[in-house]
Structures are given as C-alpha cells and as structure tokens.
Amino acid sequence: MNQFAPSIDASASRRGRAAPLRIAIAGLGAIGLKVAEALDRGIPGCALAAVSANDRGKAAARLAHLGHPPPVVAIGELEPLADLVIECAPASLLPAIAEPFLRAGKSVLVLSVGAILVNEHLIDLARAHGGQIVVPTGALLGLDAVAAAAEGTIHSVRMVTRKPLPGLAGAPYLTEHKIRIAEITKPLCIFKGTPREAAVGFPANLNVAVALSLAGIGPDKTTLEIWADPALERNVHRIEVVADSASFSMQIENVPSDNPRTGRITALSVISYLRKLGAPLRVGS
Fold first, then answer.
1. Cβ neighbour number for residue 19 with a 10 Å cutoff
2. Residue 133 CA neighbour count, 13 Å, CB half
3. Cβ–Cβ under 8 Å, residues 180 and 206
4. What percent of the chain has pLDDT over 90?
5. Across the chain, what does the average pLDDT equal?
6. Of the candidates 84, 111, 97, which has an alpha carbon nearest to the alpha carbon of residue 211?
7. What is the mean pLDDT of residues 234-255?
8. How far, in Å, CA of 210 to CA of 228, rounded?
9. How far does CA 183 lie from the centroid of its chain?
10. Which domains does the chain have, with CATH numbers?
11. Which range is least confidently modeled, 7-11, 202-206, 267-271, 279-283?
12. Which of 15, 44, 200, 222 gives a 20 to 30 Å CA spacing to 242?
C-alpha cells in the first residue's frame, strides 16, 4: 500500500451535518480568486467563510464584486473561522497556514505540494490530531490511476514536463546553475532528477511532479525531466507508469492562468473537489 498517498475524502465526518462546510482561502492570486468566485456563486454544502492575503486592502477590493464578500483577515485568524483552508499562497507560508488547522483536527487543501517535502512534520501533526492534508489533482491527469496502481506494485514512474519560458522565470535552480532563460532559443532540457530535488529548485513550478510522486512511488524514486521550450504557449506534462497491474502513459497540455506558472485547470480542480464533498453522485476519488 502506498505510504505517501494523501487521503482524499475530507467530508466523511461532516456529511450528516446541516451546516455548510466553512471554507477559508489563504492567498488571493489567480487560483484563490477563482475559487472564491465559485464559492460565492454557490457550491452545495460549502460556504466561503474568510480569506487571507498579503495586502488585505487590495484583497478586499478584489472581492468587492462578490454577492457576499468574506472578511479578509491575517493568516493566524483563519482557523477559528473555517473547517477547511485552501492554501493558495507562496510555499514558504504553508506551515503558518496549515499548522493551526491540523492541530484543531481540521483539513488543509495544499496547492504548494512541493512544500510538503520540506515540512513533513505537517503529516505527523495531521496524524496526531486527526487532521487531514488534501492534495487535489491540480494540473495533472491520472492521479487516480497512479494511486490505484500503488495499491499493487509500481515498477517505475517517469514524468517529462515542457514549459514556456515565462513559466520558469525566477526559479532558484536557474539562478544557481546560471541558466539565462531569456537566451534559450530552442527546446532545452534544464533539469534531470527527482521531484524532491525539483521541489527545491523549482518551488513555484513543479507541484504537479511532487503530487505525482506522492500518489505513486515517492519523491525519491520518481524520475523527472524539465524542458524549457520557447515555442510553447502551454505547460505540457507527460507521465509514463509501469506497474504490475497496468502500464500507461498520459499527456496533458494546460492553458496558463494569469500567473504563467499556474494552469487554469488548477483552480477548476479545487472547485471540483469542493463540489464532490456534498455531491449525491461522486465519480473518481
């Protein structure tokens, strides 16, 4: 059985209650705002309870068009207001966002998945207090199949990611290795290694690779290539899995959001997860 696979169903203990699940959003960038708007429009069984952001005044202005704008508070004030927090913030803020919720036995939906690998104490905290860390499908298809295969034996998992140049700008790995992204004129493999290594060198770019590794054989056994391609306009992820139950390969081309490091489908994945919590019919994990 896969020791890394995140739990999926955060609603099991709440399905019988009449009150809606109170949702907090930590971070109001491209993903956080889309999720807030969807919650404001209405997701059965869920209610937008609070938002936190670095610039609280600006965040309040961005939420003013909602039918029911939530309070904008400091990160440390979110936990008493919500049952589940959606982390849409810089990876460095994950502990500050997650720890209060996990200590209270609540749920944290994490988008900065790579940060889990450098904050593994969060898993112990969730275990000790009955909390839950949820990793949504995000920008990568096939996590259900990988997690299912991990119940048997997976022999290998390989991922090749190809990104437009703007989606890689600012990555610490590029600075460390003196790779000038603006000077790349043809497809170039800029990284070969593991998701654990990529999580350090590309903290804002390769959460999908870490999610894949957590669903499968772990962040040290999964192999990863990152290509910078000036001809691309979309993030392209291809995964290849060989297991005792099946061998399969999948590819997805994600349209970037307003943030070139993040695909539009990531916010939709979060919304889909929330919609499943109270759905009378649930398809997939």
1. 9
2. 29
3. no
4. 75
5. 90
6. 111
7. 93
8. 19
9. 30
10. 21-138+265-277 (3.40.50.720), 143-261 (3.30.360.10)
11. 7-11
12. 200
pLDDT tens-place string over residues 144-168: 899 999 999 999 999 999 999 988 9
- Give Cα 221 distance to the centre of its chain: 20
Taking the C-alpha atoms of residue 48 and residue 69, their distance in angstroms, rounded to an integer, is: 9
Q: What is the mean pLDDT of residues 63-71?
A: 97
Nearest partner of 116 among 135, 129, 103, judged by Cα: 135
Residue appearing with tokens 């936990």: 79
DSSP string covering 122-183: HHHHHHHHT-EEE---TT-S-HHHHHHHTTS-EEEEEEEEEE-GGGTTT-HHHHHTT--GGG
At a CB cut-off of 8 Å and minimum separation 6, what does 58 contact?
Answer: none
Phi/psi at 196 (5° precision) = -65, -40
Active site residue ranges:
237
- Report residue 17 as tokens: 């209650």
105, 106, 107, 110: CA torsion to nearest 10: -80
Specify the pairing of strand 223-228 against strand 188-193.
Answer: antiparallel
Phi, psi of 108 (to 5 degrees): -130, 120
Residue 25 has pLDDT above 70, yes or no: yes
Neighbours of 176 (CB within 10 A): 10
CA 64 from chain center: how many Å? 26
End-to-end CA, the chain? 16
With cut-offs at 50, 70 and 90, classify the pLDDT of residue 17: low
C-alpha 41/C-alpha 55 separation (Å) is: 24
Q: Which letter does DSSP use for residue 211 in this model?
A: H
Give the separation between CA 252 and CA 261, rounded to whole angstroms: 15
Q: How far apart are CA 147 and CA 154, in angstroms?
A: 10
